[in-house]
Amino acid sequence: MTSGDFIVDAEDRMKKAIANLQQELQTIRTGRANPALLDRVEVDYYGTPTALKGLANISTPDGRSLLIQPYDKSGLKDIEQAIHKSGLGLTPNSDGSVIRISIPTLTEDRRKELVKVVKKYGEECRVAVRNVRRDSADHIKKQKGEGVSEDEIKRREESLQKVTDKNIKEIDKLIHEKETEVMDV
């Protein structure tokens, strides 16, 4: 692999860590209705754990509620049970054909807890990015014995650090935006 390949590979792996962070952040409840809140809900559908979004259409008729329209009405009770068991603190209400969920406003204490979770996700992502940097830096240092000049090694390390800094800055921005969203009343 050439130095450029190491840098491109490192940047790709860092971007994947950030994409994972964005997915994690979407599942955090902010007091606003967002279908992504239910992304991790799995329904025991005919004995098989199935993602809720594969069994129903999830929409937001307004900013404070979710509307779940199952493709198969016989799975309504299973969907309700899965939402109750999800630990999201949501209460589904069924009228026999659709499920409505009102998103309650968050208490100040709950908002602070959620900010801690957001920060934890951010730190986990930073660690993942730093691990990618460390692995790539090790590969670059190994090239020293393969006849690559000291100056070229230095340039490659600086390039890797610039990519790392750019991605850490992106993580910080995402975390700050989510904290603001959570704390917004």
List the helices and strands and how they pair.
Blueprint: H1 3-26, E1 42-45, E2 48-51, E3 56-62, E4 65-70, H2 76-85, E5 92-94, E6 99-102, H3 108-142, H4 150-183
Antiparallel strand pairs: 1-2, 3-4, 4-6, 5-6
Question: What would you say this structure looks like, in words?
Answer:
The chain is an alpha+beta fold. 56% of the residues lie in helices and 15% in strands. It has 4 helices and 6 strands, in the order αββββαββαα. A 4-stranded antiparallel sheet has the order 3-4-6-5, with helices on one face. The protein has a two-stranded antiparallel sheet with strand order 1-2. A hairpin with a 2-residue loop joins β1 and β2. α1 packs antiparallel against α3 and α3 runs antiparallel to α4. The chain is elongated and about 70 Å long. The chain starts with a helix and ends with a helix. The mean pLDDT is 88.
Q: Concise description?
A:
By secondary structure, this protein is an alpha+beta fold. It has helices spanning 3-26, 76-85, 108-142, 150-183, and strands at residues 42-45, 48-51, 56-62, 65-70, 92-94, 99-102. The strands form 2 sheets. It has a 4-stranded antiparallel β-sheet, covered by helices on one side. A two-stranded antiparallel sheet has the order 1-2.
Strand adjacency order, main sheet: 3-4-6-5
- N-to-C SSE string, H for helix and E for strand: HEEEEHEEHH
Q: So what's the oligomer here?
A: single chain
Q: What's the N-to-C terminus distance?
A: 51 Å
Report the total helices: 4
Radius of gyration: 22 Å
Count the beta strands: 6
Question: Globular, elongated, flat, extended or rod-shaped: what is the shape?
Answer: elongated
Largest sheet: 4 strands, antiparallel
Helix content class: 55-70%
Structural class call reads alpha+beta
Beta-strand content bin: 15-25%
As residue ranges, the low-confidence spans are none
Give the overall pLDDT as a whole number.
Answer: 88
